[in-house]
Write a structure and sequence with these properties.
about 230 residues; alpha/beta; eight-stranded mixed sheet; 5 helices; about 10% strand
Amino acid sequence: MAGVVVSGAQVSYISQDCEEIPEFLGRKYGHMAKRLDLSFNLLRSLEGLKTFSYLEELILDNNLLGNDLLLPRLPHLHTLTLNKNQISLESLLDHLAEVVPSLQYLSLLGNVACPNELVCKEKDEDDYQRYRYFVLHKLTNLKFLDTRKVTRREREEALVRGAFMKVVKPKDAKASSEAASLSPEMNYTPLPSGSRDLTNHRGILGKCRYIYYGKHSEGNRFIRDDQL
């Protein structure tokens, strides 16, 4: 078939602009493929993987896979790369823990799921490290995540604190300011109503029941060494 490259148990179908896995791939190669490369396509669904029950390595880089990604159960799969797709994190990890129990090598670079500072300037190494702890908490058998080997210290930290390391995206500041502008009556200010008009700069005078002279204030005297 045009576009298919086969080498032993390795099958590649790269840069074919397909939005789903062609049926003929599974029919012809599903029973023998141990490594499948579907990089640089337009995949939005992985339904055609059902016949690839012996897969050990699956390469899905540079596709259009999103949060509705569903893998069939692949008990032998130990390597999965999903670089440069459109995937967020938590639902994916729970799904992977269920359907690929033998997974040891995972790469998610270039996704919203992975807060990598090389891809997003708003992220830093601390964000990335917290992401690693959270992933390792969910997928305890991983030996390699993205470009780095999993260390013993990371595994121990993930066991203790990984559940609390989910990276939460803050609310959009612009959206918050727009919401505030739509509801000006909800903006709290301690100032009297007469001083709230910024175009009308007037002083507000009033009476106070208490007068503070600072008579007993510690700030009104020096403290000698023998008083310390």
